[in-house]
Structure formats: C-alpha cells, structure tokens
Design a protein that fits this description.
The complex is a heterodimer of chains A (about 300) and B (about 170). Chain A has 7 helices and 18 strands. Chain A is α+β, with helices and mostly antiparallel strands and about 300 residues long. The radius of gyration of chain B is 19 Å and the shape is elongated. Classes of the chains: A alpha+beta (about 300), B mainly alpha (about 170).
Chain lengths: ~300, ~170
C-alpha cells in the first residue's frame, strides 16, 4: 500500500502498529504523524452547556402544555435543568408568541380568534396569546396578508406606522422605509408619521420614507405573492432586489445607482433565472449567478 | 425507558441537546475561531430546531443542526483567527521523558496551533473534525456535504501546509 493511502488509514484510526511503523520510517510521513498526534491533543474552548440550554429555553416559541415529566435515567445529571424546564414553560406561555419565516418560506397562521394570517418570506409576527381576547394587537416586520374575523379592534404595528381594522381583509408590506397597505374588504385605518388615512376596499396606499406617495385603486382580490409571485407598481429597484433576496436564498451585488430606478412588473418565486430575467431585462440589466451569489450590472459593462 | 419519538417532546429535545450541542459547538468553532460566536450559533441552531420540531424527526436532527448552523455561519462574517486551547500535558507512565523533550513537545504543539490558523476554512474544519473530534472520513464527508475523496484531499493539503509552515525539526 502506498504511503499516502496508509496516511489516511492512520488518520481514520484503522492502521495497524506495523503500518504505523512503516509510515514513520519515511521522514516526510513521520512529520505528518507527529503533527497529527500533536493536533489531536488540542481542545476547543470550554462549552457552557447548561447556560446555553437555559438561553434556548428563554427564547423558544410557545411550547406544548407541560406534561408530567418522567424521570429519565440519563437525565439524572440534569435534575436541576429539569426544574428550570418546568418553570420556564409556565413562564413562556404567558409571554409573546413570535412566528418568523425564513427566506423563500411562507407560513399560514390562525390566530386565537380564528383570524387568518399568511406570512410572506423573511418576515416576523409577534403577538400575545393570553391577551388576545382582550386586545388584538400584533407586531409585523416584513409582509403579511390578513383576514380578520369580526370582533374587537385589530391592529398591526410596524416600525413605520400602524394599521387598525374591524373585520376585514388587507395586506401590509413593511420593510426598511417602504410601507404599503392594500385593502381587499371592509375598511382599514392607517396611522403613520402623525397622519391617519382611511382605506376602503379596492384601494391601496404606498408610503415611502414616511411620506404618502400613492393612494389609488387596486383591482386584485388577493395579493399576488400568495400565488407565489411578487408584483410591483412603480416601486424602486432596491425594493425589488430586496424582495428577490427574501424569496430566494441569494446575495445580490449591484451598483448603487440602480437602486433608485423604478420598476413595474412581477417575478415568480419558483425559478431564480426566470425571476432575475423578468426584473433585469426591462431595466437593461444583466446578471450572473454563481452558487448563491448573484451579480447584477448594466448591459455593456462588466 | 423509551423516549417519545418526537422532537417537540421536552425530554427528547434535551436529550438531543446533550448529545449534539458539543459537536455542533466544535464544528462552528473550527470554522470561525470565536468562542462567543460558536456559543451564539449553537443556541440559534437549537432554537431553529425547536421552532421546526414538528417537521424534523429526532433521526434527522443531527443533519438539520449541521446544515442550519453552517448556513447561519455563512451569513455572518468570520474574521477571527482560529486559536485553539492547549490541552494539559499528559504525564506518560511508560516513557519518562526528559525535561528537554517535554519542552520541545510543548513548543512543537504551539507551532502546530499557530499553523492551523493559517489553513483555509475548508481544510481546517475537515482536519479538526478528524483530529480533535475523532470523526472518520465518511462522517466528515456527510457533515461538510462533500465526497470522501474530497475529505482525503483536504486532509493531505492540510498536513502538507502545516509541515511547510512548521519547518523541518
């Protein structure tokens, strides 16, 4: 057997003593063996197991009801930890519920009053289950479509403003400095930057950087992204590229000056190349895909 | 006692944590060299597992955790140089080494530590998964999502670079 093969056998812990002797009779491979032995004695810094587990419990989503804990032999070492688990679960059910979506993931959520929410990719929703029958208030980062059942006032808080309704269907898009609201049924009230605007069914609002940009009619019955497509109406290219990064696991590099350009059109969530082509072609742009890195540049440049 | 075969079961989940948290911690540390970042990402990975506990059965938890923590690492920028701790010197009974020999071994070990920090992330991760965690090539190939041949190549490259950096003693 060649020395190189023997080396790998040795590294895998499968070499016999004779084979190791053979390996060490060659000066180069003797050095490799010496380095390998020395490396095996190194350690990573101390792993704080209990502390890390405690942090996990404090941060996890609403857990299942506390069941009777059966003493488990190999968890005896963690007797103290089990006490923490029980206490934390009781604590957690009284805290806020947070639901987040990853890139290219959508989530259907039923709220305690049977209101429905569809959460778009790379978004997050926070609400308190226990308080829900008294106050229907939640926090949104990103985009979601709401179908609210009749009841008390229902409010959606975002970093740029609040939307309140009483039994209706509407869509909220709140990312960075863009705040778009579309009402499909009923009436919604939008508060932002000290202003309040009432939005009736069949209308939509576009707010950029805290300024009202558009208040117009919309003919669709449901937002397009639920059907796995993202649609834009004179939105900045920056917004479009960010949405591409929310729907696909990619990282886009593009020259800064193109972000302010305006785009009207849509892209699919099902195929990255088609999506990029749909965005770039009408804007005289080209793109290259390299694994999860996408580069966009003006036609003619390199 | 047969544990409930569901990741959402608190007993099962803490069992998974007990078995897999240290290997995942080491894995991230080999990549980034930051104790704080490794602790953070282990935490995040297990939180993700809990949030997806309905979709990830206990048998798939290991590969889920490696994939998730690897992706999370890609999203962060790792600039830290990988600095490993030096294990306590073991006093061997069969060979009473001279003080000079022990000192030489200690210096050699330090040279190895410094040289390891200069490997590429791919070489270093594969090499340390084998050397420190004692994993066989087949398992390393699964974790890194590469072929066994590719693992062999990285191991050979790592040793060649380490030997060059340390010089011939």
């Amino acid at each position: 057997m060649e020395l190189e093969e023997l080396l790998h056998k040795y590294l895998n812990g499968n070499a016999t003593n004779e084979e190791i002797e053979r390996l060490k009779s060659d000066s180069q491979y003797k050095m490799y063996a010496r380095i390998s032995e020395a490396s095996a004695k190194l350690q990573t810094p101390n792993f704080k197991e209990e502390n890390t587990f405690k942090n996990i419990l404090e941060n996890t989503v609403d857990s299942p009801k506390v069941r009777r804990i059966n003493p488990i032999g190999n968890l005896l070492k963690f007797a103290a930890l089990i006490a923490i688990i029980v206490a934390s679960f009781v604590l957690i059910t009284s805290l806020d519920t947070t639901i987040s979506t990853e890139i290219a993931q959508k989530e259907n959520i039923i709220l305690p009053d049977a209101s429905e929410v569809i959460l778009n990719s790379n978004s997050e929703l926070v609400y308190n289950k226990r308080n829900w029958d008294k106050e229907r208030a939640l926090e949104l980062h990103g985009e979601a479509y709401f179908k609210v059942s009749k009841g008390n006032k229902f409010s959606v808080e975002t970093s740029q403003g609040t939307v309140t309704v009483v039994g209706t269907q509407f869509n909220v898009f709140a990312r960075d400095t863009i705040f778009n609201i579309a009402c499909y049924e009923g009436l919604v009230r939008v508060q932002f930057n000290g202003q309040t605007i009432k939005l009736a069914a069949g209308n939509k609002l576009k707010i950029e950087n805290n300024k009202l940009v558009l208040n117009t009619q919309s003919t669709s019955l449901r937002p397009v992204w639920i059907e796995n497509e993202s649609s834009f109406d004179n939105d900045t290219l920056g917004t479009v590229l960010n949405e591409l990064q929310a729907q696909y696991p990619i990282s886009i590099t593009a020259p800064n000056y193109i972000n302010a350009k305006r785009f009207t059109g849509s892209f699919t969530h099902a195929n990255l190349e088609n999506a990029l082509r749909a965005v770039c072609a009408p804007m005289q742009l080209e793109f290259t895909i390299d694994g999860d890195q996408v580069r966009i540049y003006a036609q003619g440049e390199k | 006692m047969k544990l409930n075969d569901n990741t959402c079961n608190e007993g099962t989940f803490s069992g998974l944590f007990k078995d897999l948290s240290k290997p995942i911690y080491n894995f991230i540390f080999f990549k980034c060299g930051s104790e704080a970042q490794a602790h953070d990402l282990v935490q995040e990975a297990f939180i993700k597992l809990w949030q997806n506990c309905q979709k990830v059965p206990p048998t798939k938890a290991k590969s889920f955790l490696y994939t998730v923590s690897s992706n999370m690492f890609l999203n962060e920028i790792a600039h830290k140089k990988v600095v490993l701790r030096h294990a306590k010197m073991q006093v061997s009974n069969s060979n009473i080494e001279s003080p000079e020999f022990l000192l030489e071994e200690k210096e050699f070990s330090e040279k190895v530590e410094v040289a390891i920090a200069n490997l590429t992330e791919g070489q270093r991760t594969a090499f340390l998964l084998n050397r420190i965690d004692g994993k066989k090539y087949k398992e390393i190939a699964e974790i890194l999502d590469i072929s066994v041949k590719a693992v062999e190549k990285r191991m050979s490259q790592a040793l060649a670079i380490l030997r060059k950096e340390i010089g011939n003693i």
